[in-house]
Amino acid sequence: MAENLKVAVSDCSVPCKMSWEELEALCRRERLHCKELGVNRANANEYEVEFLCDYKKSKEEFYLVKWRGFPESDNTWEPKRNLRCPKLMKQFHLDLDQELRRHKRRCIPKKLDKEVTSVLIQKAKLRQSLQRWEAHLNHTRNHPGRIFVMNEVDLEGPPKNFTYINNYKVGQGIVLDEMAVGCECKNCLDEPVNGCCPGASLHRMAYNNRGQVRIRAGQPIYECNSRCNCGLDCPNRVVQKGIQFDLCIFKTENGRGWGVRTLQHIKKNTFVMEYVGEIITTDEAERRGHVYDRQGSTYLFDLDYVEDVYTVDAAHLGNISHFVNHSCNPNLQVFNVFIDNIDERLPRIALFSTRAIRAGEELTFDYKMQIDPVDTESTKMDSSFSLAGLPSSPKKRIRVECRCGSDSCRKYLF
């Protein structure tokens, strides 16, 4: 985090070489108040427990305390009766019990091994790092749904070289022109004028009065836009309102890396999130694809609704969809959506629920999704619902084993 922290000086910003802990200690020493570091007038002179490092027991219980705003060289052993940090103490013992079980030990020893305490300290620091990342994500997002982060599997921290964005970022040499024409409806769903925005593009209204998608996968969605007379409560404005659900980025236990689970119940045919990233040309996508192949992963999504010209790359710039895993039996379905830009070469990629999804369930979509062949539009869209390397153009890809665990698993992603 230290590398990403910046200090503003006269409209300039430079990377700060100090860690968060060093900055906090400096603020306390100089009596400076900082909201981001949690230093204020009320606690500047207080000794606050940052986390617990070690444990021992003689006649009474003692904990080795890392004090917030002070270096680890100032850690001190404190009797349990002196500490007022029940949540930190509970978390410490949860971590300790887990580590002792890993070593096949049932009882807490009077003195912990160095190997055990090292892991406990790493977990405490990891939790802090993930909390800072979580706060950053929620500060950056522009949608109502909150983002939570959890890793109870290993010691991997926030992904490096990844920036959270809310909308497409246009790559070099690509221009996005807003070409939409607004509707004149007062009630777009019940009394559409000239078919409203979908009708003007010779398509049906995609949503019912509850905002649930009612058209087949493969048909495009045309939402009302900034030039329309209808208000923000128009039922034909769904994707543009952003993520509405609280979601959690979590570390999977079966080697699939990070995943995303919903923390709220999601009804069938409901918009969940967009697939957002950097828009690049297919030639640039081909070049990057070879690099990603060597890394064993890809975040390239071809926008080939009408022609294979552009690709979305979410490897380093993206939203929470960057962390959604593949499943051969997914609970999310992809739709092409047009709002302010009706250039058919540049649709927005929206993920809708295929069924009711319970709170706590992982969200997934099929990286090689096939569209219903009965639909008349499928022939030009069946290749637009897969990551680069899967569409019509024959690009060689390394075979990647699928670990989705579904009964219908195809065994390989690519």
Automatic annotation (TrEMBL):
Which GO molecular function annotations are given, in alphabetical order? histone H3K9 trimethyltransferase activity; zinc ion binding
What processes in GO biological process is this protein linked to? cell differentiation; exocrine pancreas development; methylation; retina morphogenesis in camera-type eye
**Which Gene3D superfamilies does the record associate with it?**
2.40.50.40, SET domain (2.170.270.10)
Q: Which domain of life is it from?
A: Eukaryota
Q: What class of enzyme is it?
A: transferase
Keywords assigned by UniProt, alphabetized: Cell cycle, Centromere, Chromatin regulator, Chromosome, Differentiation, Metal-binding, Methyltransferase, Nucleus, Repressor, S-adenosyl-L-methionine, Transcription, Transcription regulation, Transferase, Zinc
Q: Where in the cell is it found?
A: Chromosome, Centromere; Nucleus
Q: Name the positions where Zn(2+) 1 binds.
A: C183, C185, C188, C196
Q: Which residues form the Post-SET domain?
A: 398-414
- Residues given in the record as Zn(2+) 3 binding sites: C188, C224, C230, C234
One cellular-component annotation, GO: nucleus
Where is the signal peptide, in residue numbers?
A: none
Ranges of residues in domain Chromo: 47-93
Question: Where is Zn(2+) 4 bound in this sequence?
Answer: C328, C402, C404, C409
Annotated catalysed reactions: L-lysyl(9)-[histone H3] + 3 S-adenosyl-L-methionine = N(6),N(6),N(6)-trimethyl-L-lysyl(9)-[histone H3] + 3 S-adenosyl-L-homocysteine + 3 H(+)
State the family named in the UniProt similarity comment for this chain: Belongs to the class V-like SAM-binding methyltransferase superfamily. Histone-lysine methyltransferase family. Suvar3-9 subfamily.
Q: Which PANTHER family match?
A: HISTONE-LYSINE N-METHYLTRANSFERASE SUV39H (PTHR46223), HISTONE-LYSINE N-METHYLTRANSFERASE-RELATED (PTHR46223:SF4)
Q: What is this protein called?
A: Histone-lysine N-methyltransferase
Query: From what organism does this protein derive?
Result: Seriola dumerili
